[in-house]
Fold each of these.
Amino acid sequence: MTGRDAGRVVDEVVETIAESAPEIRQGLVGRREDADAENPSGETQAEADVWADELLADRLSSIDGVCQYASEERLETIDCGDEGGLSVGVDPLDGSSNLKSNNTMGTVFGIYDDPLPAPGTSLVASGWVLYGPITTMALARDGVVEKYELTGDDRNLVDDDVSLPDDPLVYGFGGRVPHWSDEFEAYVREIESDPDHKLRYGGAMIGDVNQVLTYGGIFAYPALEGNPRGKLRLQFEGNPIAHLVETAGGSSTDGSQSILEVEPDELHDRVPLHVGNDELIERLEDALE
Ligand code: F6P
Ligand code: MG
C-alpha cells in the first residue's frame, strides 16, 4: 500500500472510531452486567465488552484497505480485505471492570501495516478514546500526538502536539505488591519516597496512562511472580500505548527493551508494560537488570 493510500485508510479508521465513541459511551448504559463468557485471556467479559467489539468489528472491517480486524475480545482475526492492506487491533473497552463502579474506561487501537500478530515497529498510527467526564481522543501518527474532544457531532482538536511534561509527577503500578519482584518493589519505594511524586491508580490502563501523558510520570503493569509476562496484551494494549507515549517524547520498556521491539509469538501474548518519562524508564531498566 502506498503512503497516500495508507494515509487515507488511517483517516477512515480514526474517523470511524471517533464517530463510534459517543455511541459506545451511550451503549454502556444497560450493558454493565457480566456476559457469562470469557475473552481469550481468560477474563470474564461484560456485556459491553462483547457489544463494543461487535460494533467496531463490523465498522472497521468494512473499511476499504483494512485487511484484518483483531481484538482482545475475540480469539481469531477477521480477515476482511486484500493482503497488503492495514490491520487494526483494538481493545474495545479497556478497563471494563470499572463499569461496575462507574469509573474511567477507554477504547485503544493500533493500526499496523503488517498482518497480526506484528511488532510495534509495524504501527503506522495508534490512539485511544478516554470515556472520562468528557470523551477525548489521543492520536499518534507521523511523529506527532494530537488530542481531541469528541462532542458527539464533532472531533475538536484541542492540542496539536502533545508531549510528556519534563518533570514527572504521577505514578501508578499494577499487580499485587506481594507478586512484584524484589527489584521492582525497591524501584517503586524509591519513586514513592520522592516528595515530588504522587500516586494515581484507577484500574483502567487508559485512564492511568493518560494521567502520565498529562502530568508526566510512570505507569507500569510489571512482570509478576506466577505471571512473568504481566497482564496487559502486546497487540491491543502494549504496542499502541508504547507507540503513543514514545511519539509524545516518552519511553517504554518490557524491562530490557522498548515494547515496540518485542517480537510477538501469538495474537494474545502479554507483555510486562512500563511507560513514562525517559529518565524514570532508564532508571527502571537499570533496576531490573
Ligand atoms: O485491560 C486490562 C486492565 O483492565 C487494564 O486496563 C488495567 O490497567 C488493568 O487491567 C487493571 O488490572 P488490576 O485489576 O489487576 O489492577
Ligand atoms: Mg484492556
Amino acid sequence: MEPTGILLRALVFAAARHRDQRRKDALASPYINHPIAVATALWHEGDVRDPVALTAAILHDTIEDTGTTEAELAAAFGAEIAAVVVEVTDDKSLPKLRRKELQIEHAPHLSPAAKLVKLADKLCNLRDIIDAPPAAWPHERRAAYVAWTRDVVAGLRGACPPLEAAFDAEQARWAAAAAGA
Ligand code: NDP
Ligand code: ZN
C-alpha cells in the first residue's frame, strides 16, 4: 500500500489502542499526542522520509503500553514495521532499573529505523520533562530522567545528526533552566 495510506491506518490503530490512556503531565494530555509528536519530529526536524520509521513511530508504544502483539502489527502493517516496534519495546517482565540499563546497552545495536524512532522518542520525552513534566515528579527525578536520556542517546549518535542537534539543544535548555532555578 502507498506510504501515506499505511501511516493513516497506523494513526487510526494507535489512537484506538491508546484511547483510554493519558500522558503523565498535569493536564493529562491524550496519549496519542506523543506518538504523533515523535513521527512529526522525525519528518520535520530529522528530515526522515522512511515510511517504515515514520509508521513505527506512530505505533512505537502500542506493544509496551497497550498489550498489542507483534503478530497483530505484522498482520496490519507488515513484518518490517512490526519488528521495529519490537526493537523499541521494553521487556516489562524485568525490573524498571534493569529496563533502563538495557536501553543504554541496546541502543548502539538497534537497526537504523529503530535508532531513529528511539532518538525521536527521547527528544519528545525530554521536551515533555521540560515543558509538561509528570505532575508529581520533584526536580531530582526530572534531572535523573534527563541524564538517562543522554546516556541512551550516546549510543544512537550518527543515526540522524539534525535530530541529535535538536536533542542537544533541549539538553542545553534544561541545563539553563536548572542553573536558573
Ligand atoms: P518512568 O519510566 O516511570 O516515566 C517516564 C516515562 O513516562 C517516559 O519515558 C515516557 O515514556 C512516559 N511519559 C508519560 N508522560 C510523560 C511526560 N509528561 N513527560 C515525560 N515522560 C512521560 O520514569 P523513571 O522511572 O525513569 O523515572 C525517571 C528517573 O527518576 C529514573 O531514571 C530514576 O533514576 C529516578 N527515580 C525513579 C523512581 C521510580 O520509582 N521509578 C523513584 C525516584 C527516582 P513513553 O515514551 O514510553 O510514554
Ligand atoms: Zn514513547
